[in-house]
Amino acid sequence: MERFTHNVGDNMISYMDQGIGHCVVLIHGFCGNHNYWKYIVPHLVKKNRVLTIDLRGHGESSTPRDSYEIAEMAEDISILLNSLQIDRVTLVGHSLGGYIGLAFAEKHPEKLSGLALVHSTAFPDTEIGKVNRDRGIQKITAEGIVPFVNDLIPKLFSVKNANERKNEIDYVKSIGYKTSDYGAICALDAMKNRPDRNDVLRSLEVPVLLVAGREDQLIPLDRAFSVEKPTINHVVIEDCGHMSMLEQPDQLVDVLLHYLQTITDSKR
Q1: Mind telling me which Gene3D superfamilies this protein's record contains (predicted)?
Q2: What residues does each domain of the chain span?
């Protein structure tokens, strides 16, 4: 399947563009790429135009020479959408992708028809989380990306699924190995330094979807479901850790299709 590229300043962003209709942008998580969504895209493209983006420093996209913030990763998406003359989108962000979606919503709320955070949170890192980011940076600096990914990926799955889905874990590891050392280091630092964006959730007027895994070892339900209001829907994926798009793709597809239908209905 054809992949496209677009230059954003000095950086090159790689993406796939499939389908027609309302535009849905799928943003992968840390040490991921567009292939995280391999089970999801075929269902969404039946009624939507779907963009799957490789974030800077990840997948086939280039790695900047200097450090960067979450907001700059969000601006990459905004610039790409402008170049494609796409005015409004629904952003679906997994983990790091959700942090980026919130930063996008903070600066460009007028470009959003909806925002979905999948295994993500509007809270900043805890102090323990920040220490762990620094440990990750130190490990990658000393040993490279492969040992870091080997340690990280099994923790993304529920304990039960980690034992039963070795093929999916190996698949996610193979994706993670493609992340550049410096790209991973910069992303860790950007996540560590991100601000609290719960006010963004509170202020958004478009439909918001918050998805959490019942057995997520990284982001528990209380951090995923940080804001309650009529336009925000909370959904728990059962028998699932941090990777519903690979652990429970059928459940996630159903949730996303229902959510996108509500957006379509709201435009009528």
Answers
A1: alpha/beta hydrolase (3.40.50.1820)
A2: 4-266
